[in-house]
Amino acid sequence: MNRRDFLKKCAMTGAGGLVLSNRAVSVRLAGRRPNILYIMADDHSAAAIKCYGGRLAPVINTPAIDRIAAEGIRLNNCFCTNSICTPSRAAILTGQYSHINGVKNLGQALDRDRQNVARLLQQAGYQTAIVGKWHLKTEPSGFDYYNVLPGQGNYGVRNIVRLKEKGKPWQDGNKGGEEYDGYATDIITDVCLRWLKGRDKDRPFFLMCHHKAPHGLWEYNPKYEHLYENVEFPEPESLWEDKGHRCEASRQAGRTILQLCGRMESSTWPTGALDTGGMDDTQKIKAAYQKYLHDYMRCIASVDESVGRLLDYLDKENLTGDTVVVYTSDQGMFLGEHEYYDKRWMFEDSLRMPFLVRYPGEIGAGSVNDDIVTNVDFAPTFLNYAGRPVPSEMQGRSFRANLTGKTPRDWPKSMYYRYWMGASGVPVHYGVRTKRHKLVYYYGSPRGWELYDLQNDPAEINNVYESPAYATVIGQMKAELARLREHFGDTE
Ligand code: CA
User: Fold this and answer.
1) CA distance 238 to 2
2) From the CA of 471, how far away is ligand 1's center (Å)?
3) Looking at residue 492, what is its pLDDT?
4) I want to staple 452 with a disulfide (CB 3.0 to 4.6 A). Which of 65, 215, 310, 438 is the partner?
5) Rounded CA gap, 40 and 378, in Å?
6) Where are the alpha helices (DSSP H) in 13-107?
7) By three-state DSSP, how is residue 282 classified?
8) What is the 3 CA–ligand 1 centroid distance (Å)?
9) Are 175 and 196 contacting, i.e. CB atoms less than 8 angstroms apart?
10) 146 C-alpha to center of ligand 1: Å?
11) Residue 418 C-alpha to ligand 1 middle, in angstroms?
């Protein structure tokens, strides 16, 4: 019986059998340092992964990504501390909030002398590599090997894909790189597999496979041109939100589907212009939403295929049992919720990161975890797997124990968020989220507060900040927000 069959059998025999088998394997794994395969997409909403069971689940397919959850664990409350590409990547590498690591917005570069998880794993004897989207401007440090897209990179449909490989003179941001033929997601996968095949097999590896997809503009592989062709994607309830309940600061802001429609009407739109002749605004929003979801899900089809290829490689090389596999995204993404596309906001769809982990023998197959974790917790968790201490400058905590059902008693019950950039129509804001409530403060001009009761209002279409019934909750949430700001040293 191979390990997969063994785990399936354990899962079928119920929790008791699984606990016993886990304990037995844990003893055998004690002291061993697993490989870590970290796969991160760009702007992949949890709603666009079937195993998350969102509104799209009945009509989408993500079999390889779902396999990680089926053989491992799905985290339902993993959140980004600053929901935008470059800052999230810096937080993941450094284990620090944006105001500490210095990358608060898209224009800031990561100081390459700053401590990061790759360098710490490298010093611990791991082989470290990053392939794909980097987006932190300075040359990657702490990696034995890198081959990264210049800036945002290209999909390879209208523009050639370029990758900047270690060993050649580094050029900043969007510059430099060798040309590759093909589609970006496939190329990044090919380079990851090539590196895996050539690695030193006597040492553990830490590989970050960072896809460009499904970041806009959503140029799918032409072979998926007809995928989901006859599918009508369900609309989110909040697509038709009346934003009158919000505070003035957020009422008229954001990147809307109607604005996206305007861009899609252009003859230069990469997947073909959207013909909206004779349509009113409601019809335009409906049409643009459908086109957006079609293009987006077709990009994800290639990401899923990539995950499948990497998992197959681990199976073929007998590495599945010795490898922690993570699938996540640098932040969430609006897929029409609140009539938005893009991210940045503290609203759920942007705040939530999908996070799936597989580590057979330690993590029970098909588990689910609801603890609140954030992207500054990733680096400490990887160091824990490698048997290394977490340096004091890292602000996160390892959630390795949480993944085995042993959540520490003092595990945080809340998380702190701050969006600094104030661009793309999204006002600067910070806030606190607990399992039930979310308090947001827009501190620019105009200022304003919002409170959401996520139990009664999961779609966040009813700001209750002005409701007297919530006065006590508001007091508690404000105290918690002040405590978190102090704790994380963000008192500016
Ligand atoms: Ca992103």
Assistant:
1) 46
2) 36
3) 81
4) 438
5) 12
6) 15-29, 63-70, 85-94, 98-101
7) helix
8) 35
9) no
10) 20
11) 16
Q: How far is the CA of 135 from the centre of ligand 1 (A)?
A: 10
- At residue 441, φ and ψ (nearest 5 deg) are -120, 120
- pLDDT-based confidence at residue 254 (cuts at 50, 70, 90): confident
CA of residue 43 to ligand 1 center, whole Å: 4
211 CA → ligand 1 middle, Å: 10
Taking the centre of ligand 1 as the mean of its atom positions, its distance from the CA of residue 62, in whole angstroms, is 19
Q: Is the per-residue pLDDT at 157 higher than 70?
A: yes
For 146, residues 6+ apart whose C-beta sits below 8 A from its C-beta are 129, 130, 131, 134, 140, 164, 165, 166
Cα–Cα distance measured from residue 125 to residue 427, given in angstroms and rounded to the nearest whole number: 44
* Burial (CB count <10 Å: 0-12, 13-18, 19+), residue 157: middle
Q: Which helix (H) or strand (E) holds 437?
A: strand 437-442
Helices (H) and strands (E) in the chain — how many of each? Answer: 13, 16
The alpha carbon of 169 and the centre of ligand 1 are apart by a number of angstroms equal to 26
Residues, CB within 5 angstroms of ligand 1 (ion): 42-43, 85, 330
> Any residues with CB less than 8 A from the CB of 198 and at least 6 apart, and which?
none
Residue range 163-206, pLDDT digits in tens: 999 999 999 888 999 999 999 999 999 999 999 999 999 999 99
Tens-place pLDDT, residues 423-451: 888 999 999 999 999 999 999 999 999 99
Between the CA of 42 and the centroid of ligand 1 the distance, in Å, is: 4
Concatenated DSSP letters of 174-237: T---EEE-S-HHHHHHHHHHHHHHHS-TTS-EEEEEE--TTPSS----GGGTTTTTT--PPPPG
- Residues 157, 187 contacting (CB under 8 angstroms): no
Q: Judge whether 73 and 363 are in contact, CB under 8 Å.
A: yes
Q: How far is the CA of 84 from the centre of ligand 1 (A)?
A: 5
Distance, CA of 78 to CA of 197 (rounded, Å): 32
Among 34, 42, 5, which residue's Cα sits nearest to residue 362? 34
Residue scoring higher pLDDT (19 or 417): 417
* Ligand 1 geometric centre to CA of 209 (Å): 14
